[in-house]
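ENTRY TYPE: protein
WANTED: fold as tokens:
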Amino acid sequence: MNRGAILEMQPGRELDALVSKTVFGMENVGFIPYSTSIAAAWSVLEKMEQETKVSVWSDNNRKWACEVEYMIHDDCDTAPEAICKAALLYKHNIFGRGITDDLIPPEVQCLNIVSPYATDRTAEKQTTRS
């Protein structure tokens, strides 16, 4: 699944099933409304906090954002949607703001700093850019 497909998903059963599989490693466990219920979404947030730093907030335009490992996914109508999409982007390692590496000048690519929360996969990707 690519970044665009995740961002285009609407809150509902399809997004919930993907969160269940990707974040929790569970399939066919019944319906858990991760993308529409703050109580269910909170379990996603708690699961992500076991791996990295996570925060959620609302801006002045009543849009929600979720930050996972210093990468922000924003512009969601609800907190559960922001949490679910941020978790999926993080788990699929496609957390960006629509800018691909080939559009970033080489001098900027070299400035990547490995987070203390970085996974081995993230650290490998960041060191190969230098």
